[in-house]
């Protein structure tokens, strides 16, 4: 007996997504809930994979099982597929595990042909029959036989022009009949073959086309962009047709159980009378708000509300539903967890906890890290908005602010973004699945037609791209490559600003502001729940009081890395150079004591004050000294210019040549592996001693004012325990001296950064001296891979990793911790360090501390905290909770 490739809807359920796809498992689940679903069956994703893996041959037994399935449908419906006198019609619908909006196409009304269309016409009316048939030929020609959809649109346009009508619904039956003839001729000429008249052949070809579409360009692009694996395959659903195009008491619609844009708990959707399939989302006719159905079709509306509430309770999540009403009777054609904006996601999750529908943990699990990012994204400032020139207002289809240059087709948009590095606003009459690559490359999307559930809106919401849809005020002229609006002519390349949250379009580039974190109650509730769940603490990397304040306002529980070198940049560089250039030890010490010490003390004091009560890790000077000096190249050029002008006797010349000799002296072949970190501190102890003095003077001063301080002094770049044994006691002596001068004792720690592989290997020794570890995974990754990050990204790393053409590394290891390699060193470092010192405090302060996947690794490694940039703190709080949920019991 051959494998089971086909499942009737009544044989499946919601847990079978892998096998039946999202759509198939949803149809099965609704069927078992007793909801009104037209009968059907699903060919499994395994069948698709078997087909694709076998040179596009249907696997043995599949066709026979399809025939059996059709026999079941025939019996249920009391008419037979391919019966010339009264044919049963079906739809053939793709459906992968993850919903891929519009990526793979559905064929409706399958089973009609030139002959049976006339029989249907006699029974159910001319208009209905010919409208249904033309849809079949059109969709079949496009999806199965490879004739571009625009070719059919051209014919429809000319038929409408001939009849002098605007809407598809106004085309006469004779008009559609004519269109069908022209479609068939077109297909015969340009298609892979003629339109098949045999319904069984239609069915077989359609199933194969769905299987093949899994490997189509659109589908592959979309999966790449959204990280959906390529090896899942798609299922095919074959379902008896119900008809929304049989007259004015029929229609088709889409609805959400809650508002997917803002999360409000009200039913939301759109409906088109006398319409079939994708009419409602195609943007061709502007649909009616779904609540209007209450008056127009009260029974169906009430039923829809009932079904909607059953489904939301059953799935415990907001549902996105597709339905058709045939002669006043409701049929459900799809349900799935609805895509939503980040703002809606947090509101819905919090509301559902309050409604008792889900637990806090479920709520936290449902929010994705990138959504937190989105909520922190920039918006237009209100004052700026008021002063700006508003061009138009459309639908607020996907929130956020976008500024960029206008381009009018997807290919150009993609090209301008990728090749010219432009910020692009894609402007289209409406979008289709063929435009997705251009949408992905754009900062914002503006469409002239289409509603809140149009293709542009749905895809933009999912991708988190701001979108204004259905902006009928703009008149696009593709031939002239421009659009006109409110007396302005906007040409390709001109700059506009879109506000996807309000639907407004502005002239020129508007300034943006970051949203206030505190004013987002739902986000803060979710993060508060995340805090209750997570075990990892979240600290922040902050170099000045301003950053420290921001970090704290975002929920940071400490400063994991304060880089002191940043305090010597900008207008302070000159002062630091003074120290480097000092001719004598006394002069050097004088600059340290009189110039640099007060500056550092002030910085540290400000940070302690902001972080009152929380730990602050301050790293001693880390980079090589040449980073604070002008470049040798620049100096050489200046010296040569002075020489050329005969100015070798000037004080300027003397100064430049001296500088050049110092810089040449400092230069190294490989500064990354050179005189930096604790090596610098050991060879020039005055610098570090000054820093420690500044830290403790500031801490003691603050403590005296009642601020609770806990400084932790971090010694960078340790490779051998003897380095610490040498420097740490010297520095601790300074700390003690300051405390006794100030007459106050404070709590403090001395520890080290772990960023050299040898330090991980000998962490047991190092922990004998260091009271805490902080993994500097940027350097650790560089040194473990032997790759210099900044050079490599420019030269080869982007080709190596992620979507690079060489495909050597699955991910850029500087973004996501390389668990297999660098991760081993991390685990080893923690384990060996804690063997010596069980209460060793361990954290991570590299860029990875803000990356959700890396945070999960840190959780498993048993770190105390991750430290990341202030803006990443909210993301890290959520990711740490996700890690705890995922690794429950560990
Ligand atoms: P997509 O994955 O693009 O949403 P679907 O398979 O859901 O494609 O089909 C699109 C639309 O076609 C549905 O929303 C529905 O309106 C219509 N449709 C599909 N199957 C049927 C059917 N059996 N009867 C009536 N309409 C159908
Ligand atoms: Mg679709
Ligand atoms: Mg659908």
Q: Can you offer a commentary on this structure?
A:
- The chain has 890 residues and is α/β, with parallel strands linked by helices.
- Helix content is 47%, strand content 17%.
- It has 35 helices and 33 strands.
- The chain has an eight-stranded mixed β-sheet. An eight-stranded parallel β-barrel has the order 26-27-28-29-30-31-32-33, surrounded by six helices. The protein has a five-stranded antiparallel β-sheet with strand order 1-2-7-5-6.
- α28 (721-742) links the parallel β29 and β30 (749-754).
- It is elongated.
- The two termini are 44 Å apart.
- 51% of the residues are buried.
- The model has no long low-confidence stretch (mean pLDDT 93).
- Adenosine-5'-diphosphate binds next to β5, β7, β11 and β12.
- How would you state the average pLDDT, rounded? 93
Rg, alpha carbons: 33 Å
Low-confidence stretches: none
Total number of β-strand segments?
33
- Percentage of residues in strands: 15-25%
Strand order of the largest sheet: 14-24-23-16-17-18-19-15
Treating each run of at least 4 consecutive H or I residues as one helix, how many helices?
35
Which ligands does the model contain, each kind named once? adenosine-5'-diphosphate, magnesium ion
Shape: elongated
The helix fraction, in percent, is 40-55%
Secondary structure class reads alpha/beta
Main beta-sheet strand count, sense and barrel state: 8 strands, mixed
Termini Cα gap? 44 Å
């Amino acid at each position: 007996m051959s494998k089971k490739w086909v499942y009737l809807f009544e044989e499946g359920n919601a847990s079978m997504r892998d096998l039946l796809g999202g759509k198939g498992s949803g149809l099965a689940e609704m069927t078992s809930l007793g909801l009104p679903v037209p009968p059907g069956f699903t060919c499994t994703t395994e069948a698709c994979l078997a087909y694709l893996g076998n040179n596009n041959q249907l696997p043995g037994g599949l066709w026979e099982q399809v025939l059996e399935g059709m026999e079941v449908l025939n019996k249920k419906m009391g008419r037979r597929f391919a019966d010339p006198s009264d044919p049963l019609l079906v739809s053939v619908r793709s459906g992968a595990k993850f919903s891929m909006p519009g990526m793979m196409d559905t064929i409706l009304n399958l089973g009609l042909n030139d002959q049976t269309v006339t029989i249907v016409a006699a029974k159910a009316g001319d208009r209905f029959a010919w409208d249904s048939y033309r849809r079949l030929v059109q969709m079949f020609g496009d999806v199965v036989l490879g004739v571009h959809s625009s070719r059919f649109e051209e014919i429809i346009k000319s038929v409408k022009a001939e009849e002098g009508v605007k809407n598809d619904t106004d085309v006469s039956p004779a008009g559609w009949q004519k269109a069908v003839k022209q479609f068939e001729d077109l297909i015969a000429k340009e298609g892979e073959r003629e339109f098949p008249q045999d319904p069984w052949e239609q069915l077989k070809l359609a199933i194969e086309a769905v299987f093949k579409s899994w490997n189509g360009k659109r589908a592959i692009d979309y999966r790449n962009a959204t990280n959906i694996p390529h090896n899942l395959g798609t299922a095919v659903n074959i379902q008896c047709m119900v008809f929304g195009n049989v007259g004015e008491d029929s229609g088709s619609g889409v609805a959400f159980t809650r508002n997917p844009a803002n999360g409000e708990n009200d039913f939301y959707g759109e409906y088109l009378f006398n319409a079939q399939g994708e009419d409602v989302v195609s943007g061709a006719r502007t649909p009616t708000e779904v609540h209007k159905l209450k008056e127009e079709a009260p029974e169906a509306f009430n039923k829809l509300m009932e079904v909607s509430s059953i489904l939301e309770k059953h799935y415990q999540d907001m549902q996105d539903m597709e339905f058709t009403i045939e002669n006043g009777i409701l049929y459900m054609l799809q349900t799935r967890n609805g895509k939503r904006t980040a703002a809606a996601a947090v509101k819905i999750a919090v509301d559902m906890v309050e409604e008792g529908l889900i637990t806090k943990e479920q709520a936290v699990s449902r929010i994705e890290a990138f959504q937190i990012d989105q909520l922190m994204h920039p918006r237009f400032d209100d004052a700026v908005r008021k002063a700006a020139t508003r061009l138009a207002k459309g639908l607020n289809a996907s929130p956020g602010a976008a500024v960029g240059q206008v381009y009018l087709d997807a290919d150009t948009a993609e090209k301008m973004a990728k090749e010219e590095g432009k910020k692009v606003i894609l402007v289209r009459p409406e979008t289709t699945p063929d435009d997705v690559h251009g949408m992905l490359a754009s900062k914002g999307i503006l469409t002239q037609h289409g509603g809140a559930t149009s293709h542009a809106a749905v895809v933009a919401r999912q991708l988190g791209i701001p979108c204004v849809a259905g902006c009928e005020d703009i008149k696009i002229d593709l031939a002239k490559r421009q659009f006109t609006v409110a007396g302005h002519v906007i040409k390709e390349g001109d700059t506009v600003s879109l506000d996807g949250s309000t639907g407004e379009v502005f002239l020129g580039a508007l300034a943006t502001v970051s949203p206030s974190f505190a004013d987002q109650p739902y986000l803060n509730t979710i993060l508060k729940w995340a805090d209750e769940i997570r075990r990892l603490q979240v600290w922040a990397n902050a170099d000045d009081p301003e950053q420290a304040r921001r970090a704290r306002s975002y929920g940071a529980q400490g400063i994991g890395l304060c880089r002191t070198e940043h305090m010597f940049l900008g207008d302070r560089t000159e002062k630091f150079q003074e120290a480097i250039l000092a001719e004598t030890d006394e002069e050097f010490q004088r600059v340290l004591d009189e110039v640099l010490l007060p500056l550092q003390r002030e910085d540290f004091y400000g940070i302690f004050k902001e972080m009152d009560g929380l730990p602050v890790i301050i790293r001693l000077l880390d980079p090589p000294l040449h980073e604070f000096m002008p470049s040798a190249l620049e100096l050489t050029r200046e010296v040569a210019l002075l020489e050329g002008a005969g100015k070798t006797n000037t004080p300027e010349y003397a100064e430049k040549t001296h500088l050049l000799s110092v810089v040449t002296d400092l230069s190294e072949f490989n500064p990354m592996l050179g005189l930096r970190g604790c090596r610098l501190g050991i060879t020039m102890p005055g610098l570090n001693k000054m820093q420690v003095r500044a830290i403790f003077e500031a801490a003691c001063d603050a403590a005296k004012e009642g601020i609770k301080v806990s400084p932790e002094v971090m010694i960078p770049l340790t490779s051998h325990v003897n380095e610490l044994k040498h420097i740490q006691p010297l520095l601790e002596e300074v700390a003690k001296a300051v405390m006794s001068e100030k007459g106050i004792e404070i709590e403090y720690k001395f520890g080290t950064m772990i960023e050299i592989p040898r330090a991980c290997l000998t962490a047991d020794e190092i922990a004998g001296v260091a009271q805490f570890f902080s993994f500097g995974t940027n350097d650790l990754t560089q040194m473990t891979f032997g790759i210099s990050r900044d050079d490599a990204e420019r030269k080869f790393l982007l080709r190596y990793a992620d979507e690079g053409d060489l495909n050597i590394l699955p991910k850029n290891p500087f973004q996501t911790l390389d668990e297999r390699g660098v991760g081993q060193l991390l685990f080893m470092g923690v384990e060996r360090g804690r063997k010596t010192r069980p209460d060793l405090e361990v954290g991570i302060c590299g860029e990875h501390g803000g990356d959700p996947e890396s945070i999960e690794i840190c959780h498993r490694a048993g770190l105390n905290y991750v430290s990341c940039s202030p803006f990443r703190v909210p993301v890290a709080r959520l990711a740490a909770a996700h890690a705890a949920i995922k690794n429950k019991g560990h």
